[in-house]
Amino acid sequence: MNSFFDLHYAEQILPALLRASMYTIFITLIGFAIALVLGLVLAVLRRSPIKPLARTVGFIVEFIRSTPLLIQVYVLFYVLPVYGITMSALTAGTVGIALHYACYTSEVYRAGLNGVARGQWEAACALSLSPWRTYSGVILPQAIRPVIPALGNYLVAMFKDTPVLSAITVVELMQQAKNIGSETFRYLEPITLAGIFFLLISVSFAHLVRRLEYSLRLP
Amino acid sequence: MRELFPLLLQGTLVTIEIAACATLLAIVMAFVATAAKLAPWTPLRWLGNAYVEIFRGTSLLVQLFWFFFVLPLPPFRIEMTPFTVAIVGLGLHYGAYGSEILRGALRSVPGGQFEAALALNMSPLSRMRRIILPQAMINALPPATNLMIELLKGTSLVSLITLSDLTFRARQLDEATFKTTEIFVLTLVIYFVLAQILVALMRHFERRVSHGIIQRAVR
Amino acid sequence: MTVKTDLDIPTPPHADLSVEKPMKRDDPASVLVPQASTQDEPMVRFAGVTKRYGALTVLDALDLEIGRNEKVAIIGPSGSGKSTLLRVLMTLDPLTDGMIEVDGEPLTHMRKNGVLVPASLKHLRRVRSKIGMVFQSFNLFPHMTALANTIEAPMQVLGLSRKEATERARDLLSLVGLEDKCNHYPSQLSGGQQQRVAIARALAMRPKVMLFDEVTSALDPELCGEVLNVIRRLGSEHNLTMLMVTHQMGFAREFADRVCFFSQGKIIEQGPPQQFFSAPRHERTQQFLRAVKEAV
């Protein structure tokens, strides 16, 4: 029981940990897909000519960005049921993390949109393009390409934030590791393995993002 | 509502205390890691890189749990109070990000400054201390402000290792009084206000420190 | 205006201690011989200096001697290696090959047991202290006032007290005509003023050799004059060896003792301004001067 790192034990718990990591990956992918779309919507709304709308959206984004994810997830899981909106822990967690990161991605999109030269908007206007066509055909292709690396970084960040959801009983990787540890009182292996998993995925993904950034820079 | 305040306020004070101490450690670690990464000695460089990669690449919660659950047990047998775990975990985690900010800030100082200092025959230490670092620090303030807000939000996770910070008190109160909505909304507002105060302080500091450098229209 | 010769540099004991400018500029005999008062040793000597960046040779086995108190202007097309020459002298870039001597001592190397080895940092700093440099982009420290810029190095490196350094700095700032701008930050000064502060800052270290790397190239034409005037005054009132990379042909013609034409890492031609500008010998020089005249 006093050995340093019990490889045999680690081997034993690996399947359970990998199963739980499926939840982690699921939450990350779905959550980020939502954040990508929602973030863009928020960014466009912030540029709306209807000033009260733009300001309100701006304030909400700022508020969500300045407050902890944990509390936001608590709100979704504990406060909403009071008003009749009940969600499973998994749903609440995914929605919560998606909303939180949508606010980050909206900032990224904003930077991208601001980076598109004024002339592009003016040219689209001169060609009488509809707002929809202006965005989809002219502006967005130019706005999004340079910010893809930044978006990639937030994907990694979101992935690393999924353990927060363990606080509302989502049995993702970190929670599973804790459970295993509390059952056997050997925390070293499960938590270290969980840590290694996060490290491997985030380092390799960060590497991918860097390579993507490099290949996007060429033209 | 009134009976909620005192306990939440207590929690807020703990949050501020943890954030302040962790920030100090993070600043120290940022400098240590950057110095290590720039050292002429390879093992030191490797150590610095390893520290930054590991603490940036894994989840904050994983790190906190590791310090909280794994260290007290064999083979490490290091007992730390939850408070110490919080400071160490947060400080090391955000110190790693801080070192990246510092690196970027040092690179942002124009090469001509190094050359002018060298032409004036200043020693490398003098040059770094008197010329490069002051300018780097000023450039580092905006991203450092963002990082400090992230740290503030990160303190909410220490509630999961039994520390009685604001988040912990909020959950406690919720379970005791079931005034769920008020509690969590109030909690969110308190974090938001803390973040705004932090930003205002940093902006004021930034203005004071860079008062001569601000580019005015020169002729 | 009474000029204080702040720049009296301690000359070696056996030298002539006369302070005034020794020779007239248009004395032909004086020109190719380094204008040393009594010292025969050149102030700066480049011996076989080569600088390569990978496959690109920027300085090609250069030999050049600069005499004491000589004013040398270096002209030539971009990329010819002019700035690199100043940079290796100021030890901003290392040499690929060759050696540089300053004031009789090797700069880039040192004598250890009678053998020349690459210089240690300590040796380098000691010999380097005789050289000062003014840059094209001024490189003033933006977080310090003009005065603070000028006292920084004397205090940090020479160990002067704040009082001594401030006194020296004030003298130098009034020498360059900026005594009323002592407490201004670089962002509050015009380009010409910044460059003059940069000159004062370099002079505060009492160098024997001053390097000017295209110091007016980043300035608006109307601001060049004030900087060139300061350089002119420095040259005529003080004992300073000056090496200038410049595009200001008129200034070079009137101020320099010798003009060197650089091209592709080599000195193609050099000589006194009169002869150089009116009767250049080499084809390449003639080509360059023709193009320059057309541009004016």
UniProtKB/TrEMBL annotation, chain A:
It is a multi-pass membrane protein. GO terms for molecular function: transmembrane transporter activity. Coiled coil: none annotated. Keywords: Amino-acid transport, Cell membrane, Membrane, Transmembrane, Transmembrane helix, Transport. InterPro entries: AA_ABC_transptr_permease_3TM (IPR010065), ArtM/GltK/GlnP/TcyL/YhdX-like (IPR043429), Ectoine_EhuD (IPR014341), MetI-like (IPR000515), MetI-like_sf (IPR035906). It is found in: Cell inner membrane; Cell membrane. It comes from the Bacteria. Pfam families: BPD_transp_1 (PF00528). The keyword Cell membrane applies. GO terms for biological process: amino acid transport. The keyword Zinc-finger does not apply. PROSITE patterns: ABC_TM1 (PS50928). GO terms for cellular component: ATP-binding cassette (ABC) transporter complex. The chain crosses the membrane at residues 20-45, 83-104, 187-209. This is Amino acid ABC transporter membrane protein 2, PAAT family.
